[in-house]
User: Which sequence fits this backbone?
């Protein structure tokens, strides 16, 4: 398999996962704001800051209103981190890798792209935005299902899984970031009262509420959610589960060199996080650290498979 | 005859399917009977079905613009163009003869130059050709074949004779559309294809693969082939991906390949470097190797020429083969056939005036308004003058262009190229067409059964290039013993 093809499929999966996750993030934030009573201080700015894009956002906008933030995150074609930019990039990657994927895969992504393109304006309206986001979530799920049903579990498939799980682990950590950010910044006790609602919405963002209840037999509380989303070995969107998927893929691929050892290190690191005895500030540090470690894992994957060094 | 034929005109030019509004030619009897058995709505439905299939299958060509690259759906006319197998046998023989002679000529140009020394062609034509690559002098590609893949454009004039318009020996495109056109026709007219004895065309990828492996430097073990594409912004990217998939080759870009100190070519794969034996390159000579040709080329592979000259990789077509893809050289092909093969040409050339030749030059300037003038080295129908369709001002400005650079212009009489019925807004109307068969030459020679019929969809237009509003038709070579 060509290194360039491997890279394109890896990014195809990352961009599609990112598309899905941005949709989840905006969805959950809307729900959260609807649940909280009026007057509770909680806004849209945090969505920008967990993606580390304040600078870019404030270049184009003065205030972080719902309208500005959702337009920026969903529809801004000049912001490379937006949902539409991610989907466009995913489509471009699949368009140039069609010889490796089932025909329906291209058709599915193309269809979703055309839908998004034709409905970009509707995201300004809250009700229509809900419909838009649902369509995107469904489309992403269809793509994943299609590949799992149609595609051989070959090298190309492993690169898709690899990209998807790196992106997913990263986004789960960012969604946890959002929670800790909301909690640490709120000075009033009023927000604290609504902490449970906050954590429930975090679980919902990752489709994990039902699974949480089955697993924990307990009312929703911060420590348990954190533990569940970081370390539960059965939940597909938990960080540890993503890392174990990454590990499986890496071990299936040829010439993995130092990578299996690096993934083991990362796995040990996540297992060692003590979710019960961390303050919000410490937690934010841990999550930052985790994101950096995922970033360097990505660089190692790229060095290993995408940039085959050529002897001069 | 039904209303779709109403006022069908056959007096514009030779019509491939019809004698007159009311009478079909023998080759098209069955087709016309069948079309008459359909209701008008049925025909519209088939047309829509064809368009849908093209969208679904993603058959496209890319148009690059400021707003990004746009994939346009391939314009296709559902009414096929038909040629009798008896006629085709002769054309096929003529095409093989022609490419064999052209390859002898290219070998000679980079070797003995006997053709020039014997005064069959002025040597300035070669020395002044921008497609003559001195780096290739002394090279001997396998089987002495330089142009392995050739697309020869044929047109039929009002006298009913097929003429060769040009030989595309650099990177001819269109074969994937020829193959896909048949797939669509099978979907749209399944009943008809069962009834009529049409020669199949879908063996082309097999022959392409055989030809490519036949030119590999090594003949044992697994031979690795790659299709080298300039990338996704190239208008023929769809075709490059399609052919790679069909022949089981890797689709590579310049950056995917590297030439090492051992002068061998390798692909960069996830398992490390993997040796490549044959490259079907879809990049022009100019961009092939920045070490030798254009230094600013980012599409090519540095060192590719070294590897080729060392005999470690085969390139199809060989670098330098384009020297014979020149409209001035074209004029000498009949002479090449006589000289190298000791045969008479089976397919005629269109009479050609070379502006570099004093007598021809005077004639051309005198008759500019009646002639078609073409630059020697362009493709895609660019930069030409169609005298009878041009304004007096255009003719005058072309006169100045020719005077400045006579070597680079040729002129031909304006042919009345043949027409075929084409579905236009629910009615059949005659539109001008040409034909591009594809010829493969390696150890053996192979000609596609038919080729790509291109059609000028605009009324009265003679330009069939897809970049300029042309479309295409399926091409049927049929056995008529039973009819």
Assistant:
């Amino acid at each position: 398999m060509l290194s360039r093809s491997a890279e394109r499929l890896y990014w195809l999966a990352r961009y599609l996962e990112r598309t899905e996750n941005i949709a989840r993030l905006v969805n959950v934030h809307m729900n959260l704001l609807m649940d909280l009573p009026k007057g509770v201080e909680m806004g849209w700015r945090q969505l920008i800051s967990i993606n580390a894009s304040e600078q870019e956002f404030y270049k184009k906008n003065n205030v972080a209103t719902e309208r500005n933030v959702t337009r920026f995150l969903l529809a801004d074609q000049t912001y490379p981190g937006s949902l539409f930019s991610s989907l466009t990039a995913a489509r471009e990657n699949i368009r140039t890798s069609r010889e490796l994927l089932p025909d329906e895969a291209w058709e599915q992504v193309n269809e979703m792209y055309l839908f998004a393109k034709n409905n970009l304006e509707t995201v300004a309206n809250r009700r229509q935005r809900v419909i838009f986001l649902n369509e995107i979530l469904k489309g992403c799920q269809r793509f994943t299902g299609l590949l799992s049903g149609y595609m051989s579990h070959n090298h190309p498939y492993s690169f898709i899984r690899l990209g998807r799980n790196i992106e997913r682990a990263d986004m789960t950590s960012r969604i946890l970031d959002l929670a800790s950010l909301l909690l640490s910044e709120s000075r009033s006790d009023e927000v604290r009262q609504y902490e449970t609602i906050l954590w429930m919405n975090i679980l919902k963002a990752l489709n994990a509420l039902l699974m949480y209840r089955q697993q924990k037999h307990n009312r929703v509380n911060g420590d348990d959610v954190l533990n569940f989303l970081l370390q539960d070995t059965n939940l597909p969107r938990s960080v540890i589960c993503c890392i174990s998927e990454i590990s499986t893929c890496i071990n299936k691929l040829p010439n993995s060199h130092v990578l299996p050892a690096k993934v083991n290190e990362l796995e040990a690191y996540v297992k060692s996080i003590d979710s019960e005895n961390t303050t919000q500030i410490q937690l934010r540090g841990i999550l930052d650290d985790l994101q950096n470690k995922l970033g360097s894992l990505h660089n190692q994957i790229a060095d290993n498979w995408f940039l085959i060094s050529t002897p001069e | 005859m039904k209303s779709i034929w109403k006022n069908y005109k056959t007096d514009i030019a030779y019509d491939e399917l019809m004698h007159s509004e009311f009478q079909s030619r023998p080759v098209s009897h069955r087709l016309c009977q069948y079309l008459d058995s359909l209701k008008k709505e049925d025909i519209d439905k088939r047309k829509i079905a064809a368009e849908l299939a093209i969208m679904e299958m993603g058959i496209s060509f890319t148009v690059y613009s400021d707003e990004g690259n746009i994939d346009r759906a391939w314009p296709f006319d559902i009414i096929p163009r038909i040629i009798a197998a008896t006629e085709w046998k002769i054309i096929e023989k003529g095409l093989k003869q022609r490419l064999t002679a052209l390859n002898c000529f290219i070998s000679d140009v980079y070797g003995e130059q006997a053709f020039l020394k014997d005064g069959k062609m002025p040597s300035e034509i070669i020395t002044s050709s921008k497609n003559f690559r001195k780096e290739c002098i002394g090279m001997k590609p396998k089987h002495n074949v330089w142009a392995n893949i050739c697309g020869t454009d044929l047109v039929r004039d009002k006298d009913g004779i097929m003429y060769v318009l040009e030989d595309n020996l650099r990177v001819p495109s269109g074969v994937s559309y020829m193959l896909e056109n048949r797939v669509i026709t099978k979907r749209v007219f399944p009943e008809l294809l069962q009834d009529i004895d049409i020669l199949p065309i879908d063996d082309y990828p097999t022959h392409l693969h055989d030809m490519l492996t036949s030119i590999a430097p090594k003949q044992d073990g697994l031979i690795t082939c790659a299709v080298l594409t300039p990338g996704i912004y190239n208008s023929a990217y769809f075709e490059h991906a399609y052919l790679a998939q069909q022949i089981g080759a890797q689709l590579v870009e310049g950056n995917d390949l590297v030439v090492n100190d051992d002068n061998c070519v390798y692909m960069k794969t996830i398992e490390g470097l993997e040796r490549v034996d044959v490259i079907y390159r879809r990049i022009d000579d100019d961009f092939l190797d920045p070490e030798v040709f254009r230094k600013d080329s980012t599409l090519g592979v540095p060192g590719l020429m070294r590897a080729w000259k060392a005999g470690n990789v085969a390139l199809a077509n060989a670098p330098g083969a384009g020297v014979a893809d020149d409209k001035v050289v074209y004029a000498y092909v009949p002479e090449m056939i006589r000289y190298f093969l000791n045969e008479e040409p089976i397919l005629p050339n269109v009479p050609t005036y070379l502006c570099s030749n004093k007598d021809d030059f005077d004639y051309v300037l005198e008759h500019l308004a009646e002639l078609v003038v073409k630059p020697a080295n362009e493709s895609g129908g660019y930069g030409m003058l169609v005298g009878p369709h041009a304004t007096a001002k255009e003719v005058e400005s072309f006169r100045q262009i020719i005077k400045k650079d006579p070597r680079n212009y040729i002129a031909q009489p304006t042919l009345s190229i043949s027409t075929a019925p084409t579905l236009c807004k629910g009615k059949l109307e005659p539109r001008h067409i040409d034909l591009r068969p594809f010829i493969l030459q390696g150890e053996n020679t192979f000609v596609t059964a038919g080729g790509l019929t291109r059609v000028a969809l605009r009324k009265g237009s003679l330009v069939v290039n897809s970049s300029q509003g042309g479309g295409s038709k399926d091409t049927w070579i049929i056995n008529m013993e039973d009819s």
Observations:
- Chain A touches chain B at residues 1-4, 6, 95-96, 98-99, 103, 106-107, 155, 253-255, 305, 308, 310-311 (CB under 8 Å).
- The radius of gyration of chain A is 19 Å.
- Residues 3-306 of chain A form one domain.
